Amino acid sequence: MAGREILIAEDEIKIAEILQDYLVKAGYQVSCLERGDQVVPYVKKEQPCLLLLDLMLPGLDGMEVCREVRKFSGVPIIMITARVEEIDRLLGLELGADDYICKPFSPREVVARVKAVLRRVYAPPGDKTLVVGEVSLFPETHQALAGGRELKLTPCEYNLLKTLMSHPNRIFSRNELINIVQGYDFEGYERTIDSHIKNLRKKLAEHLPGPGVISTIYGVGYKFNSQPR
């Protein structure tokens, strides 16, 4: 795995301290920032392995921080917020967040989520290059190409595409994709897969105009077409 430093961006000091204590006990190095406008320069300089990002931060809110970080980094981002409205959850994921945790939460749950995301993103290479039609995945470098041009994917989008491409024409239910891609039971968050699929389709369409390669099977789930239709 890359370095084990986790950055917590949280303006509620007690919450940040509790998370830091639990993560340190789990074997991670942890740094904390209280302002959103401190996060982007820190990530550029220190390159942490994961960012725990509160939505409501002074200086620059978490949504804007996520948007700015995604312009230059694929670092896994877990957003933490007191907002429970679905629109906030989906918007966070559309901006490139890999996971979303609502307050109040168990610190143990946060540690479990962190471990699951890191296992997924920094899994040892070894899989063979995956090619289906005009889309190619290179597991050793986490590179994705569509029509010969590079796709800029978040870690979650990459793993979702990899799962679908590993079994062309097989229909995956939303629950299957959540359990495979997220790495744990993500109960109640089926709509997040829709958000990731929407983003993935948009990025693929930029390089592959015409019939889409990912089909929706209404009431069931999604599949990757070996022959676009």
Radius of gyration: 18 Å
CATH level 3 topology of the largest domain: Rossmann fold
Distance between the termini: 39 Å
Count all strands and give the number: 12
CATH architecture of the largest domain: 3-Layer(aba) Sandwich
- Name the beta content range: 15-25%
Q: How is the biggest beta sheet arranged?
A: 5 strands, parallel
Structure notes:
This protein folds into two domains: about 5-120, 3-Layer(aba) Sandwich (Rossmann fold); about 130-225, Arc Repressor Mutant, subunit A. With about 230 residues, the protein is an alpha/beta fold. The protein contains eight helices and twelve strands. It starts with a strand and ends in a 5-residue tail after the last strand. Helix 4 runs parallel beside helix 8.
Summarize the structure.
The chain has about 230 residues and is an alpha/beta fold. The protein contains 8 helices and 12 strands. It has helices spanning about 15-25, 40-45, 60-70, 85-95, 105-120, 155-165, 175-180, 190-205, and strands at about 5-10, 30-35, 50-55, 75-80, 100, 130, 135-140, 145, 150, 170-175, 215, 220-225.
